[in-house]
């Protein structure tokens, strides 16, 4: 530290109070001298509001001054051997308050701690105020972050009357001047309020009132000028509108940059980052926030796939991670494919007859159908279940067949069970007992009775099989845990206590060295298994009881499930939440499991669903499928979105599951000729196939081909080219005469006269979803729109591509047409006039081969020779995020299609492979699904701008309170002034 006389400018200031010379003593490290100097000048220059000057502070002390001056700040560096000299001690005695400039540098300084200790010994704890400029408060509680500590020991702990440091923690009063925390003015106001003993809100309101008065004065001056000079007034209004527009645009761009950095980093304030991005979209939609949001959504968890599994409160995952079993209060069990979510066989009844009921609480009953625990054997061959009927049952994991009679030994219902590693024994807990069973015989090996324990809520086993942990209540006391020797069933040490209520879940880390627990107190706690000591502070984030836990396979993350209907992910080392809550369940989350690769999480809930979360999946990551056939693949979805048909050079047709691409039946072989196109007839179970030699229909239920001869012997060498969606009209193409002809499918009779189409060979035909229009493309660099009823072209020929037009697509009602060209561009046209809508869209490095509209027409997907897929916003023509290529082959895209739900897309490639891609949600809706509330009014002022009116970011979410200590926000957008905007 340094010493010096107080500044000369302060000599004439009023004495703060009898017995004191200074309003404050500033203590700081020499490294922080610039910050201390700025603080010194700001404090002495601050003018308190006149109505407050001379009044008595609410909590006693000297009268409020005009300025908090003089303030003592020492300047000269002390020698290494110096102690606090008498002049410094005198200044400490003569100072009413102390302000500590807090940073890691201050912690390393001996003198800051000495000065604080001396001041507290003289004046007590309540007059010490902190200004945080760097580091983290209380970071030394964790060894890994100790270097970031900003509070010196004498700030963090209380001092006794002799000036000695005690073990009792203090609660420092601090203003936070770090970047992105308290604004500089707010931090100063907090310090001034504390020094002179007035209410912070009073100073803040006066500060805002001053600003308002200044703005009002400016407005009055502008009004007077407007009355004098009408022309200048008009100019001023125009300028102000332009300035406001510029302010909105610049603010939005700043929010996009700041929000994107926060979301991408996801270190501290990911939710605040999403709120900034949503605010940017509300303030200036043209700034590109939606594009940034869509791009960032690729790094977020996919919307979880829901498997409707009945009341699925319990889950177990096979050791290989390929199968999932679920069960719950309805007593039924079901196996699932863990990757696709498809059921593996029918449900089977797990436990006893529903007529039996067991009394388990004075106010409740429980049917003995309840399945309270499920576990896979280590070899994946068996599934064990624990029931409310007091039995344990063993099942064949392949077909759900019971492999033995029920095991009975528990006096009442069984609450949980685990296979002990090795698979030879099963441990179970229930009412008042812990039991061990031999798997091969089903014999009870032993039971430990614990009469004082009313109920064991959970049971977990360490990976090495040497330790068990139980959690419950009663004799263990609220929040009790007990460790057991898994070999002999003996308790290991005394019970652990830490939760303020029942412990509901526990899980060992993969090494068995740490234990995480969760309970009715909404908290998670981390324990050292060897010592039984709690590690670090409680993990806070849930707003209701936490019932489920899972460690990631590498032990670095924990996922929890709660009665608040959310899952949360945590850093296992620090206990800090990773990102925001995972939203999706409509009921409590009662079971969670990690996949062996750590990339997926499974959750179960009484809401009737099991959900699959892919934590690290990206929107552009493709799921490959296909059977090794050649190229030329054509593909289409059925209208109900359940199935997909693929066909091509392989000379067969394949019916697939639209979600996974899995074959639904063996391929149906064709004759010699390859397939030119294929699709579904709307409203039927019929697939049509165009080949070089004609058209054929495949009746899917009977697997029979129908080849209508009247459509395969058309006049004038015409060949079928396209079928209307309802299957009633056929377009045939006469390549020699360059004519199109419409035919009735039932009779084969031509409808109307032939139409002159293009000057060169036609390449593609595409119908609108309602079948009223179609569009053709050709080698002559044009496309044309046709009206089926009128029997002729609509509007002008579509000219603009600098080369062949390779494909086209119409939106559902035919009002928009998209074309793909060999010139590497995508163009959009008015479907009624053929007029181009905007400039060409550029983003592919090579020819664009296919385009497809999304179901609502707001998005367009394109694929090209560069192997890339790109998603476009139809209204603006902007590319939504980066190109999709992750997981795709090195080859050209041949076909693309978007599922009727808009949730996924499929593409085929010239190597014969196919890929399924998850589609991003609309930017606003997806981001509003990530955040839990709208930013507060104060956050809007600080983060967005005090000059722009508040706008709700998500109209269905509550608005946060400005007071961080307030309970969960309950105000709606409609209740907040100016809140009628958002998603």
| Poorly predicted runs | 1-15, 77-81, 300-306, 354-367, 616-621
Based on CA atoms alone, the radius of gyration comes out at 36 Å
| Percent strand | 25-35%
Q: Could you give the count of β-strands? A: 64
- Percent helix, as a range, is 10-25%
Count of helix runs = 13
Q: Which secondary-structure class do the elements indicate?
A: alpha+beta
Mean pLDDT: 81
**Shape call:** flat
User: What profile does the largest beta sheet have?
Assistant: 5 strands, parallel
* Strand arrangement, major sheet: 3-2-5-6-9
Distance between the termini: 54 Å
Topology:
Elements lengths: L1 E2 L18 E6 L5 H13 L25 E3 L2 E2 L8 H8 L1 E8 L1 H5 L1 H14 L4 E5 L20 H4 E3 L5 E5 L3 E4 L7 H13 L3 H29 L1 H36 L4 H14 L5 H9 L7 E4 L5 E4 L5 E5 L4 E6 L10 E2 L7 E3 L5 E3 L3 E6 L5 E6 L3 E6 L10 E2 L5 E7 L4 E6 L2 E6 L5 E6 L6 E6 L5 E6 L7 E6 L10 E2 L5 E6 L5 E6 L4 E5 L17 E6 L5 E6 L4 E5 L19 E4 L5 E5 L4 E6 L8 E3 L8 E4 L5 E5 L4 E6 L10 E2 L5 E6 L5 E6 L2 E6 L4 E3 L2 H4 L6 E5 L5 E6 L4 E6 L5 E7 L5 E6 L5 E6 L3 E6 L4 E8 L5 E6 L5 E6 L3 E6 L10 E2 L5 E6 L5 E6 L4 E5 L19 E6 L5 E6 L4 E5 L4 H8 L6 H8 L39
Parallel strand pairs: 2-3, 2-5, 5-6, 6-9
Antiparallel strand pairs: 1-4, 7-8, 10-37, 11-12, 12-13, 13-14, 15-16, 17-18, 18-19, 19-20, 21-22, 22-23, 23-24, 25-26, 26-27, 27-28, 29-30, 30-31, 32-33, 33-34, 35-36, 36-37, 38-64, 39-40, 40-41, 41-42, 43-44, 44-45, 45-46, 47-48, 48-49, 49-50, 51-52, 52-53, 53-54, 55-56, 56-57, 57-58, 59-60, 60-61, ...
Helix pairs in contact: 7-8, 8-9, 8-10, 9-10, 9-12, 10-12
């Amino acid at each position: 530290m340094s010493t010096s006389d107080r500044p000369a400018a302060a000599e004439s200031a009023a004495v703060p109070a009898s017995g004191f010379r200074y309003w404050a003593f500033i203590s700081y490290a020499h490294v922080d001298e610039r910050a201390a100097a700025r603080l010194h000048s700001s404090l002495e220059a601050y003018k308190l509001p006149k109505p407050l000057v001379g009044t008595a502070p609410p909590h006693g002390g000297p009268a409020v001054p005009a300025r908090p001056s003089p303030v003592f700040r020492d300047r000269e560096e002390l020698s290494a051997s110096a102690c606090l000299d008498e002049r410094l001690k005198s200044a400490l005695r003569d100072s009413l308050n102390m302000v500590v400039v807090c940073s890691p540098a201050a912690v390393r300084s001996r003198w800051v701690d000495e000065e604080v200790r001396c001041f507290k010994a003289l004046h007590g704890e309540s007059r010490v105020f902190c200004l945080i400029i760097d580091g983290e408060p209380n970071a030394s509680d964790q060894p890994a972050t100790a270097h970031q500590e900003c509070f010196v020991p004498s700030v963090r702990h209380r001092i006794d009357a002799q000036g000695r440091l005690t073990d009792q923690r203090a609660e420092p009063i601090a203003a936070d001047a770090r970047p992105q925390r308290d604004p500089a003015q707010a931090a100063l106001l907090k310090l001034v309020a504390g020094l002179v003993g007035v209410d912070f809100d009073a100073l803040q309101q006066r500060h805002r009132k001053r600003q308002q008065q200044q703005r009002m004065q400016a407005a009055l001056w502008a009004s007077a000028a407007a009355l004098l000079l009408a022309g200048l007034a008009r100019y001023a209004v125009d300028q102000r509108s332009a300035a406001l527009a510029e302010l909105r645009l610049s603010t939005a761009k700043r929010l996009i940059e700041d929000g994107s950095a926060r979301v991408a980093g996801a270190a501290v304030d990911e939710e605040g980052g999403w709120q900034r991005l949503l605010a940017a979209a509300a303030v200036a939609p043209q700034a590109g926030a939606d594009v940034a949001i869509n791009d960032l959504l690729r790094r977020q968890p996919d919307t979880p796939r829901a498997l409707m599994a009945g009341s699925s409160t319990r889950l177990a995952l096979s050791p290989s991670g390929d199968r999932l079993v679920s069960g719950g209060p309805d007593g039924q069990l079901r196996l699932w494919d863990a990757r696709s979510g498809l059921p593996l066989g029918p449900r089977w009844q797990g436990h006893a007859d529903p007529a039996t009921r067991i009394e388990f609480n004075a106010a409740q009953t429980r049917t003995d159908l309840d399945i309270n625990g499920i576990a896979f054997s280590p070899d994946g061959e068996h599934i064990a279940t624990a029931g409310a009927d007091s039995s344990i049952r063993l099942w064949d994991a392949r077909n759900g067949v019971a492999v033995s009679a029920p095991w009975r030994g528990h006096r009442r219902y069984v609450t949980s069970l685990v296979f002990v590693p090795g698979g030879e024994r099963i441990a179970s807990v229930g009412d008042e007992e812990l039991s061990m069973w031999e798997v091969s015989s089903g014999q009870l090996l032993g039971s430990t009775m614990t009469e004082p324990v009313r109920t064991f809520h959970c049971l977990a086993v360490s990976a090495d099989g040497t330790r068990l942990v139980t959690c419950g209540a009663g004799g263990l006391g609220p929040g009790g845990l007990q460790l057991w020797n898994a070999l002999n069933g003996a308790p290991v040490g005394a019970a652990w206590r830490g939760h303020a209520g029942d412990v509901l879940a526990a899980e060992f880390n993969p090494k068995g060295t740490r234990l995480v627990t969760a309970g009715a107190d909404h908290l998670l706690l981390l324990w050292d298994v060897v010592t039984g000591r709690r590690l670090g502070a409680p993990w806070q984030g849930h707003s209701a009881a936490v019932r489920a836990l899972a460690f990631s396979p590498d032990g670095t993350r924990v996922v929890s499930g709660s009665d608040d209907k959310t899952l949360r992910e945590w850093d296992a080392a620090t206990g800090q939440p990773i990102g925001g809550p995972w939203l999706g369940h409509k009921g409590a989350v009662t079971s969670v499991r990690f996949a062996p690769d750590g990339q997926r999480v499974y959750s179960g809930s009484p809401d009737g669903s099991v959900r699959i979360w892919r934590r690290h999946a990206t929107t552009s990551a493709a799921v490959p499928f296909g059977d090794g056939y050649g190229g030329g693949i054509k593909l289409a979805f059925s209208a109900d979105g359940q199935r997909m048909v693929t066909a091509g050079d392989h000379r067969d047709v394949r019916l697939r599951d639209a979600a996974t691409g899995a074959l639904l039946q063996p391929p149906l072989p064709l004759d010699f000729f390859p397939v030119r196109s294929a699709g579904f007839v709307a409203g039927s179970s019929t697939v049509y196939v165009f080949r070089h030699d004609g058209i054929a229909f495949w009746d899917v239920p009977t697997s029979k081909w129908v080849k209508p001869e009247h459509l395969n012997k058309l006049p004038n060498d015409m060949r079928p080219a396209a079928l209307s969606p309802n299957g009633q009209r056929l377009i045939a193409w006469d390549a020699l005469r360059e004519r199109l002809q419409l035919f009735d499918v039932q009779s084969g009779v031509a409808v109307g006269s032939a139409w002159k189409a293009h000057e060169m060979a036609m390449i593609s035909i595409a119908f609108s979803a309602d079948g009223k229009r179609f569009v053709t493309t050709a080698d002559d660099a044009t496309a044309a729109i046709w009206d089926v009823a009128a029997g002729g072209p609509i509007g002008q020929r579509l000219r603009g591509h600098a080369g062949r037009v390779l494909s086209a697509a119409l939106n559902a009602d035919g009002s928009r047409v998209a074309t793909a060209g060999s010139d590497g561009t995508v163009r959009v046209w008015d479907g009624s006039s053929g007029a181009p809508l905007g400039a060409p869209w550029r983003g592919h490095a090579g020819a664009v081969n296919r385009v497809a509209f999304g179901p609502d027409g707001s998005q367009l997907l394109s694929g090209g020779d560069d192997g890339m897929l790109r998603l476009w916003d139809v209204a603006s023509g902007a590319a939504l995020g980066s190109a999709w290529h992750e997981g795709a082959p090195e080859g050209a895209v041949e076909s693309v299609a978007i599922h009727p739900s808009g949730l996924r897309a499929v593409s085929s490639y010239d190597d014969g492979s196919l890929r399924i891609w998850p589609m991003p949600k609309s930017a606003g809706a997806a981001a509003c699904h990530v955040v839990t509330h709208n930013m507060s009014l104060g956050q809007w002022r600080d983060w967005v701008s005090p000059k722009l009116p508040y706008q709700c970011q998500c109209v269905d979410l509550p608005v946060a309170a400005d007071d961080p200590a307030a309970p969960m926000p309950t105000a709606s957008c409609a209740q907040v002034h100016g809140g009628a905007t958002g998603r």
